Amino acid sequence: MEQNYNYNGYNSEYDNNNNNGYDAGANGTYVYAQPVMPQAQPKKNHKFAKAAALVAAVAVIAGGAGFGGAYFANRVIGTDSGRITATYSTPSGSDGGSKNTDPSVSSAIAAISESGSGNTAAAKVNASSVVPTGTNGQYTLPELYEAVNDTIVLVKVYQDTSASYDYYDYFFGYGGDSGSKSSEPIYTGYGSGIVFTEDGYILTNAHVVENATKLVVEVNDYNDPDVTHEYEAKVIGSDESTDIAVIKIERDEAFLAAKIGDSSSLRVGEQIAVIGNPGITADIMFAHTMTTGIVSGLDVECLNESGYSISLIQTDAAINSGNSGGGMFDMYGNVVGVVNSKIVATTYEGIGFALTIDEAKPIMEDLLNYGYVKSRPVLGITTIELSEYKAKLYKTKLSKGMLVASISENAPVSKSGLSVGDIITKVNGKNVSSLMDVQSILSKFRVGDTVTVTVARENGLGGVDSVDIDIELTESTKD
Prior knowledge:
Structural class: alpha+beta
Helix content: 10-25%
Number of helices: 9
Strand content: 25-35%
Largest sheet: 7 strands, antiparallel
């Protein structure tokens, strides 16, 4: 379909109609329940920290302190909200897309695929010694803790800090003394993780493993409550768009694995419990803490900074630094969410979030198989975000929209009629002017679905036509 395109009118109309109404600096700050920065070497500590640390724990998050800095957000749809920040990390040795044929991966995927309804018999929980005595086969809270606590682990993060030494050398004139730099990774923070297979695959947050040069996982001894065991972990895959990562530890003895549940069966008002490792420093830690609350809200939509939309479970269960990557459990002992964030402000209290396990499952499978998310739909093109300056630079008649810079020859878009030089102004009828706008729309679709892209295309008469083009979405690649 073609029509005459009033590009001056479009530029003005876009400004009026495409305001999302988000206020990044509104009344609250949406932050990850991020890993905390230790101030001393860790102790094997499962005791309660001092009560005075409770206030400090909130201050640490609110002030943005913590491993990797502050993780802010400004686009939680329907709240004073947030942009999620995380990183993408690909495991070394990835073959760029070929499927992982390791038998242990097949076992891990089976553990995900065999998950069923969350509200089912407690026999699905891999803790046969704990018998549920609650209503309708549910655990009581003490029984739930006993049944699933050992499936939660402490993830210790080590980083190469030589770069930060260079920074201080520069400003404080330390003279470039290479002897002052550490040749070994330094313990910089910690978070939580969920063991979901007996051979040691662990689900956690991408922002927990961000920039780690070494990961050490602390696992409870299953017989002695005063003993823990440490294992070095490797990153199998990490995805910044969904804040999901899978890491792996190994030993001859089987690990206790949590049961992956079904978050689609959750209802607002249903009781849940969160288990993780909140704390302030390595010496002041509430390791393996359980907090409980209800499902306060479902399908809370959040856009990360790359524009990918994820679905969150809102809860009033206490969530703090170090809870990142920990489990949200239903009362049958099934994992229904992965804790990752909360809102912190004097006018907010008890607003925490967990990624839904249903959204995490396909991400986990792709990370296990390929080391990255292969099933994410894309248009198969590269674009340039237009501005007044770039419109002059590229001599375009529009100053808003996405200028098509290249088109993949191997993607369906190559046969759609889209051309290099077209300016994408709408996707499925919604105005777009940035990659975030486009990706937030595409995140609702699957590979193979078709979307309608509206482009502005210059005609031979010096004007601009509006053209609607149907494009089949293709599969993302590692690069």
